[in-house]
Structure formats: structure tokens, C-alpha cells
Amino acid sequence: MSDLYQHGTGDILVERKDNGVLLITINRPDRYNSLTLPMFEEMNQIWADVERDDQTRVVVITGAGKAFCTGMDVAQPDPTPQDALAMLETERKRVATMLRIEKPIISAINGPAVGYGLSTALLADISIAADDAVLIEGHTKVGVTAGDHAALIWPLLVGMAKTKYYVLTSEKLTGAEAERIGLVSLSVPREQVLPRALEVASQLARGPQQALRFTKRALNAWLTNAVPQHELSAALEILDFAGADYAEARQAFREKRPVDFPSARAAGGPAN
């Protein structure tokens, strides 16, 4: 491994495979690969490294243990306003970089993918999910706007009707159902997820690199044209971090009880 990826804490592992395939593994299996605040910046840096890494042709990203990634770890201390603003900028850069990287990205969704985790999985060029993996957009369940990918990519993948249903309700899908509606590329038995992803990655790594990268660039124009929608939703999500609904969702999680959103009790609309 070159010095490119030697800046992390071990919560995200980077490994070179044959033929220029790079394997990224989110490595907090005891917390279902949820992210601490420093991990958001680390992941952002890894994508920037991938973009300038001449040794890498294809990237595979997966999670350690039974989960892919379940989003932000809500057990950590509440983010300060400064934390929230920093996260907004980090997320803006992450999404822009993932779309700009011309090397194919494959997500191996080996288990639950929620919020940020589902965002990373769906922003990949090819997504391979365990047929029994649980996929949840999840933002509205914790009282915040679906801001890190949904407005950008869901409508292109599954259409507006399915998008609004699953994003507004945060209803879960299995990997098999996600493939049926076109949200992911493939679903396979859980034990086949990473081997299949690495197989596809190896196939692409042996293919015509310029043609593959130019094709990705052309296809991603659909997404880059929608970046202003993403940035709006991300900004609205950060505003929600200061709201009463988000505070109640975090407290309910800590107390292991159902959420009682203040805005749902307000007579005239959302609580301030």
C-alpha cells in the first residue's frame, strides 16, 4: 500500500487487490459500521485519494461483519452547529468527488445500508446487494431532511412515485426488492456479495479503461446536472440538526423508546 491511504484510524480499511482493484471496507462491525464524525472526513479524503491514485482502476466498497453501513452513529455526542456546517461541506465534497471519479465504483452491500450508508451504496456505479439486506433511506425517521443523496439519485433510479414513497416513509426494502424496482444493479445471496463484486471489478479492470471512464463520465452528466438539488436537500438537512424533532429522535434512541416528534404534536405545523 502506498502512502496515499495511510492517514486513517483503522475504522476504514483500504486494500489493494489484483489488476488494480481497490477494496475499501468500513470497519466498525460492533456498531454496524456506523460513522463517527471524524469518519465522515476520513471517507471524504479516501475518495479524493482514489481520484488521484494512478494504481487503481476499479473500486469496491463494502462493510465489515454483518452490515454495510448504518449511517451516522447516533450514540456519539450531539453535533455542534460548527460540526453540522463542517459536515455539510464534507458531504458536498464527497458526493461531487464520487460523481467526478472516472474509475468505476462498485458497492458490495453485504447487510443493512441506512442513510449515509445507502447514499454511498447507491452513488456507486454498480450496486450488488445481499438479497436479504435491509435498505432504509432513514433520514425522516430521525427528523431530518433526506439530504445526502435521495433528491439526487433516487428519481433517476426508480422514478418519482417510488422515490417519494420510500424516502418520505423510510420504509425498508430488501436487496431483492431493491433489485426488482431498479434501485440496485443486482441482488445475490449474502455469501456471494463480495465475491461477485470483486469478480465484476476484475472484469472491468481488464477492460478498455478509457472507454469505461468516458462512458461513466457521459452517464454521470445526468447526475451532475442535478447537483443543485442535492445541495439544497443537504442544506435543509443541516438546518434540521438544530430542530426539536432531531433532538427528540436522538433522545428516544438513547432511551430505547418510540420517537414522539414535537412537530407531530404542533397544531399549526413544524415545531421551531
UniProtKB/TrEMBL annotation:
Domain of life, source organism: Bacteria
SUPFAM superfamilies: ClpP/crotonase
Pfam families tied to this protein: ECH_1
Coiled-coil portions: none
Family: Belongs to the enoyl-CoA hydratase/isomerase family.
Protein name in UniProt: Enoyl-CoA hydratase/isomerase family protein
Source organism per UniProt: Streptomyces cuspidosporus
